[in-house]
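Troubleshooting log. The previous structure file for this entry was overwritten by mistake, so regenerating from the original sequence record. Sequence copied from the archived sheet and checked twice against the printout by T.R.
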Amino acid sequence: VSGASSDYIRGLLFILVQRPYDIGDSIAIAGPDDPASGNGSPQWVVKDISLYHTTLVYAFSQEIGTLSNGAISQKRILNAARSPRANLHFYLKFGIRVKMETVEIFKNELFEYIKARPREWIRPLAFRMNVISADLGYVEYFVLLNHRESWQQMGALKNSLSDVQQFCFELSASLGMGFESPPLPIQMDATSVSCFSDLLSAANNPTLTDRNNAAKGNNQLTGDVVDE
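Regenerated output below.
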């Protein structure tokens, strides 16, 4: 079987047997080993499926693309319509001097916010310390929430995530949990030291042109003439 025929047969099996998507599904196509974003992959909406090709519409720009089924069969397909109850995550940073009692109050308030919106959220899944950065003055926390919608409803997911992040920002401000990054130190490498030395030398040792210009300025005030 030639390469073209093999690709065609692979595409037929892909569409007729595997059936990885239907018309209207939002999908993301990537290489088998490419990392996933974790918060929603760029989506193409399946517009048409034939035995040879699949026609897609890019969700954000409405651009239309066509791929052979044989080519797609060798990729990893993330099907948003078949990925129910999306997990959404984000990170929070609190001042390093914030007490654990205050963090616990914040956590309980956040979980109550989630429970009060059963049409959006199913439950919180994780709230844990992720990074301690003493030199920059903050502690980072990881938050994982389980949403009721599938990844097909990307707009609804993004709106819910934005709302809960806004709630967290306002709550942390009311509890005094913010932090201010300390000023970063000035790094003097060899190039910086050399440039500084050149500037200092130029300031202390004016050139002949600088001296002549200065002399011209002085003699214009006194009425004398300076020969070049």
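Confidence is low (pLDDT under 50) at residues 220-228. Archived copy saved in two places this time.
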